[in-house]
Specification:
The structure holds two protein chains of two kinds. The longest helix of chain A has 10 residues. Chain A has one domain: YVTN repeat-like/Quinoprotein amine dehydrogenase (Methylamine Dehydrogenase, Chain H). Helices cover about 5% and strands about 50% of the residues of chain A. By secondary structure, chain A is mainly β. Chain B has three domains: about 120 residues, no CATH class; about 250 residues, no CATH class; about 35 residues, no CATH class. In chain B, helix 22 packs across helix 23. Chain B is elongated. The chains are: A mainly beta, B mainly alpha. Chains A and B meet through strand 5, strand 8, strand 9, strand 20 and strand 23 of A and helix 21, strand 1, helix 25, helix 26 and helix 27 of B.
Amino acid sequence: MSSNQQELSEPPSDAISALKFAPDSSSRLLVSSWDRHVYLYDEHEGQPNQLVRKFEHRAPVLDVCFGKDDDEAFSVGLDWDVRRIDLTTGEQSILSTHEAGVKSVVYSSEHDLLISASWDKTLHIHFPSDMISHAPNTVPLPAKPFSLSRTPTKLVVAMANRLVHIYDLRTLALLCSQSSQPPPNTTELEPWQHRESSLKFMTRAVACMPNDAGYASSSIEGRVAVEWFDPSESSQARKYAFKCHRQASDNGVDIVYPVNALAFHPVLGTFATGGGDGVVALWDANAKRRIRQYQRYPASVAALAFSGDGKFLAVGVSPGFEDGEEVLGEGEVKVFIRELGENEAKGKGTK
Amino acid sequence: MGKKKRGHPDVEEVLARPWCYYCERDFDDLKILISHQKAKHFKCERCGRRLNTAGGLSVHMNQVHKENLTNVENALPNRAGLDIEIFGMEGIPEDVIQSHNQRVLQQYYEAEAERRAATGNPGPGGTAAAGGAKKPKFESPSDLKKRLAEHKAKKAAQEAAGGSSGDVTPLGAGHGAQSPAINHSPLGFAGPPGYMQQQPAFSGPQGTPPQSAYTQPYGQPPQYAQAPIQSPYQQHPPFSQPGFGGPPPFSPAGASPFSPPPGQQYPQPGVPSFPPQFPGGPPRPFGAGSPPFHQGPSQPPHNHNPSAGPIPSRQGSLPAAPGLPQRPSFGAPHVNAFQLQQMHQGHIPGATNPSQTGGFPPQQSHAPPNEVSEESTGGTREQDHSREGAPGSAQYDTPQPAPANATSVDELISSAAKDVDGSKPATTEAGPEKKAKKEKDKNTRQVYTDNDVSPEEKMAQLPRYAFVPDYREETVLGPAEAAVTGPALGEDDVIDRMD
């Protein structure tokens, strides 16, 4: 199994915060790190997964995403800024600035919207193609956001106090485009749906199904919930949660790890979870079965990403993520690219 | 003899073999039986998960796959019901056990008779009778059939009279009333009637050999050993005097339950049935609020007299199947005894009743007074499961699905399973997990416990990640990449904010 897995030769020097594959190329990978850099890996001179470039930031980078094409990226981090990075020239520009660290950023190619979520309890809605005439909208949130995910039509914002807001992107785009004021351009927006997390503990990550039907969320308490957007009772009855990323210790105590990372396979609709125990597992959301679990990674799994064609799974591994303790030195931070077999991530079906 | 034994086992060995309620197959070992049940009868057809009980599977199907389980897989047609909680040998209704034992015995004696006829050897313990042993081969089938017919007629009569029959399927209408029979301690089982009943079935061609059989399967040592237990009761004047009219009845009954002719025993049959209950003090088997000791003697059911007509239903402790033999004890029972004590600790401080070892812990354990009324409805386990699982999806969605099986049965199961599996918790799937659910707080340790501040926020507080306003100067001086990042630093913006 290890033969189809490659470790990136020049990983970040500090904890990994996010991994993202380019929308059109499954060899192009962005990695954001607490070492204040965003790394771009790509095929280079026939060799896959080479470090092409790194982009320095003023503070640890907490999230990164690709923009409208493979050469545009957006990053956010502890310097409170939302930045646009031109991956070819390395030019960076600040799109907006929050009032606290910025945790997540997502780009919706369908609506050409860039959404950033900050611990200042706001979303910033940017129109990257029209930054001059339209100042970013500031959408207040009831609590600190912890994770963002989007489908072509929906935006899911997971927040503290187990709150979840689901926005309809079309409405969001429309309302924001009409509300153009000088900064901060605050726009009060009612989400399409208010939800409470199905999980009892703090939401760690949220990821939407590629078929736009629902989303999965994970908590710090070794659990994952899967639910559907459709508010009808029958759809809501389908939601479920399960335990994972737990480890029995010798004295009969189950050590419960946070589930740090969630990623849906873009084609098959199965999903991967990565936990503090260093385990990555693949699940079939519909059959409610685990497809497989990979051999334990040397440290906590911090981030996961599937490539656009679903052929690769990137696994970002960094130690000491949970405890908030001082992160260990180099060598402990690794990025693995796993090439998936044809049926490796395929659900087994409901039998 | 030794050689012979190897070829064909003793009757007690035959009777002691664990067997599966669902398919009547017997096994060498309780462990094997349990794994058989998990593999054949309690396996989820959707995901292949092996559960411990039918109820567990039902809940699993309900919660995980949102499907309803209607019957147990691979079961005999009349045993496929979900209303009886079976785990290994636990939970099998007395009447079914009885009929199974009868069948086993019958087969055993048939085989033995055949063998003897073929070999000309005398049966074990058959000395004088050995001479006539050769012929009965031809007599025996008809004789047997006749006796069997008699026996059946008798049973039919009992059934008509409201008693239960071993042939009744678990799904039978009368079942609900029968299953709680466990509440009768084995000592109180109507030994004599059953004894009589079974005689036809037992007695093979020879009159003699069966006698050895009687004492072995039914005459469990612990049972006899109960006689001494009487003394404690007599130390309680309130018990013995109003209830029983004095000690005398005890000694004959307790000392040799089998010796008096059946007819004689009926007049005082209640007596032997009490001792096991009295140590408990509290009226566990009697249902809520019933004055324990005065009720007892006045309760006809304790007679276990099949001919006594329809037995008045009594909360909690329903009439026993007539002629309950004590279940042969093997493997599991010692677990049960232990578990039972645990379960009943509240009710029976320090009561160690060996006769309970063969009881039905799942149901007994289930009989705190307030639930007693439910006991009589039959299929209690199923109800429990469905009740607890009823919230279904909603409940399951909550982060801590309420322990769906937080009854003592599960405790029993998990610990029994553990015991069976050599105290390796990991080997049973459901047991330890259920336990973990129950004792969640104790048994889990979260790596990250702060429910309000995310790990990233905490990391951001670390000095090494602190955002230093002057950092941009450093970046300018930075390594090769600085050239790339330099122009994008947006200096004006930064300066504004830092003010």
